[in-house]
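ok so for the tutorial part 2 we go from a plain amino acid sequence to predicted structure tokens. step 1 is just haveing the sequence, like this:
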Amino acid sequence: MENLPDCPKCRCEYVYSDGTVLICPECGFEFQAEDAQGKVYKDANGNVLVDGDTVIVTQDLKVKGASSIKKGTKVKNIRLIEPEDGVHDISCRIPGYGVMFLKTSVVKKL
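step 2 — the prediction. this is what the tokens look like for a chain of 110 residues:
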């Protein structure tokens, strides 16, 4: 049997794994266990992010050589990465801009 953590919301001990997400059967809370580096990705509101989530940009972002990405832009199917530059930890495709790297601190989970 795996040694899974208790639910951080209701402290239930019957948490089960569904791929990369852990789910609490009592309160329905979904969360991600810390990986080997102890890294959990959280958005600007503190919600845990997982690969494939849809997020919204929370502030206008300047882009070199293009117009800025406006606050409220929806970004689908994000991919969480270990940042090479130490800052940008989301890889995504933004309509009209192409592949971009974002910080988790400038997005919120839908």
